[in-house]
Fold this sequence. Notes:
Blueprint: H1 5-19, H2 25-32, H3 36-48, E1 53-54, E2 60-63, E3 66-67, E4 73-76, E5 81-84, H4 87-96, E6 102-108, E7 115-121, E8 131-134, H5 145-150, E9 152-155, H6 158-168, E10 174-177, H7 178-186, H8 206-211
Antiparallel strand pairs: 1-2, 2-3, 3-5, 4-5, 4-6, 6-7, 8-9, 8-10
Amino acid sequence: MTLDPEDLRLAVYRDLARTGRAPTTTELASRLDLSAPKVRDGLRALAAARHIVLGADDRVLMAHPFATIPLGFSVMGRETLWWGGCAWDSFALPPLLPDEPEVLVSTRCPGCGRALAWVVGRDAPPAGEQVAHFLVPVTRMWDDVVQTCGNQRLFCGPACVEGWLAATGNERGYLMDLATLWRLASHWYEGRLEPGYTRREPSAAAAYFASVGLRGPFWGLDE
């Protein structure tokens, strides 16, 4: 049979949404009635188009906002546990999960190690004084997307961010409060589990970022 890239993309995303794990090449080949080499080629094409991120063994590492590797966040629904790819992706899960009106997002502050958790839903941002720190500017996020996601973290507050920056030698990126993070995440992946989805490139999304209150060159904006 001929490989339909959209069927393959949806199979990966919908399995991750339903179970928290990505289907294997063998499972995809059986489901789509294709050979394993054809599925691997299809996965590599999806990775080249930035729909998914593959490891060296062609295993799906990420299909944003879902992840299959620990990057600092766990997201718990009523019956399913997901890895959150980053702060942005973890807050983006509820809008994509019709059976999960809210989830529990858990992490540790990289600055002090304190356990942090929020109930994140679709209707309003969670309360809290914590902040998100994005290390990598938007125009460079896909240079090394795993490194980018691993450094989009949530901290107790600005003091913990400054302590972490001093300890790691990193330069300060962009800080935002929980309400801004929630607005950023709420509609970014809209339609991703449906046929015909068109990716939104961060480097070309200045208008979207401005609409949720993000400003400055970090987000591809001049002001």
